[in-house]
Design goal:
Blueprint lengths: L4 E5 L3 H7 L1 H9 L3 E6 L5 H6 L3 E4 L9 H18 L3 E5 L1 H8 L9 E5 L12 H14 L4 E5 L2 H6 L5 E3 L21 E8 L6 H9 L6 E8 L10 H9 L3 E4 L5 H7 L2 E4 L9 H8 L4 E4 L14 E4 L4 H12 L3 H19 L1 H17 L4
Parallel strand pairs: 1-2, 1-4, 2-3, 4-5, 5-6, 6-7, 8-9, 8-11, 9-10, 11-12, 12-13
Helix pairs in contact: 2-14, 8-9, 8-12, 11-13, 13-14
Length: 370
């Protein structure tokens, strides 16, 4: 009997390496054959070295032209016919749209559509998002199609569409650990992630420029990706670099050390998204999270216990929360830090998440007629 097989459909190999490689390794360990269809780019070799079958498919980010879409759909359909995976798992919006084009294939694979990160729960208006919600909801009614959510809010936004909720990709709690932190000022608050407008980084600059944040340092470890939709302009990056209270860094290869020594993490997202891996890493390191109310990560944070919440794109609200956090007593911070670590261990560690991922793919593979 042949092993069950899954093909991930994703635009960038570096994104897969950052967010799904642990899942793929767990599936390999459960006797799955694991394929990744993506464009050639950074960390491609890392996927190959992990034992994955990696296939080059150029899925351009963004909307693209109609001819470009048709070419991408044909490429993916051809690859699926050749490899005959039991499951195709689409990660993010562009691959999800391509995967929907497989529905009309004869003897098509089962589909897992990753809805996380689409901002569905936050986007209540706008024709584009209404169409996306309608198409995804309709697809969920088809046999052998599973929606994968990271937040209950996204599932509710689709009218409680049939699907599975797994809260985030999980965190390696043996790698991400609390470190010894200084009790003396300044209060160190960190952001690790992409330099894109939706993350609200320029709102942090505006908050700092309001003043009243003496003793607070914001350390931003930004990955500047010009090909990403909504990438910050050089003018916006310069605003961040020159703002008092903000210290800019290159992306770090040791995020566990940065978070392990920080007093808090911050994610000022302007729009809905899935559960951020960065937030889970911060929790595992015992760092309370300061979070915008629009972020999907709000479902993993208890306001006042494992973090604080501010209004998205509201520099005064951001400034007030930073000021409030800097005034926490050592006792309150220690209690919050211990609670962050405990929550990460009990709910979001890889030990908790990976069995759910394997079960999800096994059920999808078994549902495909053979």
């Amino acid at each position: 009997m042949t092993n069950p097989s899954v093909m991930y459909l994703v635009t960038e190999p570096w994104y897969f390496a950052n967010h799904r490689l642990d899942h793929a390794k767990a599936l390999l360990g459960a006797d799955f054959d694991v394929h990744v269809a993506t464009r050639r780019g950074d960390r491609w070799d890392e996927l190959v070295a992990a034992g994955l079958e990696v296939h080059e498919v150029d899925l351009a980010r963004g909307s693209g032209s109609l001819s470009g879409w048709w070419s991408e759909i044909r490429s993916v359909r051809r690859l699926v016919r050749e490899q005959r995976p039991d499951v195709v798992h689409a990660v993010a919006l562009k691959p999800l749209a391509i995967a929907l084009a497989l529905i009309l294939m004869r003897n098509r694979p089962s589909l897992i559509l990753g809805v996380n990160g689409l901002g569905i729960s936050a986007a209540e208006s706008g024709r584009r998002m209404r169409v996306i919600r309608s198409v995804i909801k309709s697809a969920s009614r088809l046999p052998r199609v599973t929606l994968l959510f990271q937040t209950r809010a996204d599932q509710r936004a689709l009218g409680e569409a049939r699907g599975t909720v797994i809260p985030g990709v999980g965190v390696d709690t043996e790698r991400f650990l609390p470190c010894e932190r200084s009790d003396a000022p300044p209060t160190v608050v960190v952001y690790l992630g992409r330099a894109v407008a939706s993350k609200g980084l320029t709102d942090l600059a505006d908050a700092c420029e309001l003043g009243g944040l003496d003793g607070v340092e914001l350390h931003l470890y930004c990955a500047n990706d010009p090909t990403s939709p909504g990438a910050l302009t050089e003018v916006e990056m310069e605003q961040l670099r020159r703002t008092p209270g903000i210290i800019m860094h290159e992306p770090t290869a040791q995020p566990q050390e940065v978070l392990g020594r920080a007093h808090a993490a911050i994610l000022p997202s302007r729009a809905g998204e899935g559960v951020s891996k960065f937030v889970l890493e911060a929790l595992a390191c015992g760092a309370p999270v300061l979070l915008s109310a629009e972020s999907g990560s709000g479902e993993v944070i208890s306001a006042g216990e494992t973090g604080l919440v501010f209004a998205a794109a509201d520099e005064r609200s951001i400034r007030d929360v930073l000021h409030e956090f800097s005034g926490w007593s050592a006792e309150r911070w220690s209690a919050a830090s211990a609670e962050c670590r405990q929550v990460a261990l009990e709910r979001y560690s890889l030990d908790q998440i990976l069995p759910q991922i394997v079960d999800l793919h096994r059920a999808a593979a078994e549902s495909r007629p053979r």
